[in-house]
Design brief:
This protein is of the alpha/beta class. Helices cover 31% and strands 26% of the residues.
Amino acid sequence: MKALVLAGGYARRLAPITDFVAKPLLPLGEKLVIDWVIDKIKEINVDEVAVSTNNYYKKEFEYWSKCRAENIKLIIEPTHGEEEKFGAIAGINYAMDMMGDDDYIIVGGDNVFDFSMKEFFEFYNKVKAPVLAVYDVKDREKAKRYGVVKINDEGRVVKMQEKPQNPESTLASTACYIFPKGTKKLIEEYLGEKNNPDSPGYFLAWLSRNHEVYAYPFSGLWKDIGNLDEYRSVFNQFL
């Protein structure tokens, strides 16, 4: 299994602080945001860890990677601004071109959570199908801001809606996935149909209509750092 951390965005909603520092490299307690993500991934055995970013933040990530004890592969998308960015799904496909087809755990570089990666991986091994981690935000108004997941009694995804006006559940899709080997061909098929190359939720919704996709519900801490207010909120929690 390989691990891929997504850090290819430009985080314009956190400007001006992200004019010079990538969102995953912002401080959070005694570590950087991305360090919390990498340390969670290390709870399971993976053959390779890679971080996908862009040319604009290349030097910052190179410096960060040198400060880590383990070897982390950097995959640099050839973009320099928001108007050029690949989007998350196209970025995953680009990274998989570099890393090869395999089982993958894929995590957003700005996703802060405290659930057990071991239990997440055990759930994946039980269902042997694509899995996404979901968090109950317990409020349908709040759910409008996220990809919303509806599941059956077995945990299989029966419907996904990206930022719906009328959410059918309060389960929010987080940027944490496990994909089995062979998913790359499905990503290429999805992109070949000219579907949205950005939010992974669009791909998971497309995938769930024709394949088994499962949700792993978790509780505890989850923060999706999307704007300055959310960053301040989670920053204060870690003081």
